[in-house]
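Meet my pick.
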Amino acid sequence: MRPGARVAVVAPSGPVPEERLRAGLDILRGWGLDPVVAPHVLDTHPTLDHLAGADRDRARDLTEAYCDPEVSAVLCARGGFGAQRMVDLVDWRAIREAGPKAFVGYSDITVLHEAFAVRAGFATLHGPMVAAGTFLSDARTQESLRATLFEPESVRRLGLDTARTLVPGRARGVTLGGCVSLLAADLGTPGARPSARGGLLLVEDVGEEPYRLDRILTQLLRSGWLDGVAGIALGSWAECGPYEGIRAVLADRLGGLGVPVVEELGFGHGETALTLPLGVPAVLDTDGNTLTLDVPALR
């Protein structure tokens, strides 16, 4: 990315508060970017007010923004819910033909990260969204995304000081992941990833109480989706209850896999949301509790 680059903002999921959107656009302009807002970003579904407009409109916005040769990156405005409803309406053939470019989001956008990986073969960025509170309020969150876009070589070693070892070890693989509840919801759907085998799985979530997180992880275990995973990095668990209860579930369900697990790495719905590339070879090492990319996120 260079100053003056055009970036598109889309809303694949929930409705976007206009005031927050304006604030996020101002941050992007402060970086020297030229943000353009897709036509339906401020829409609300005519009958379902948890959606940012009609499914086909949201899918068309994403397809057209990504395929626009003048656009260098596509950033999501917010998460919520709705990406599962529109993912199959995106023109993935056109996306593949357009070639790789930066695509940024997290939370509900997990569904699209998986689709970009499986249907297009492209790496993406698990990072903050333009109208999300963390992006608007946290300087480290902003700087992590800015550096990833403009100076990707400078952010090869990832993780906050909060990171610690849940299961010791060292593993190499290609990063994947997002909201663990959405990875579970993706099972059995068209074009879904068959398993996390060989990968470094990055997972977090929001609003999932310990018993629900237990159910989600058990589903992934029973389905075989976690068979052969190389290592696991855990992010934030906002609004999921006291962390010790969450930690007990994570240790119980993931500890038996026999792979290294690092917790509290610093991505997701927490107070700081580092930008982590998905689809990039990396090393997870509990000696230092870091994720180190083999190559820059963008090249």
The radius of gyration is 18 Å.
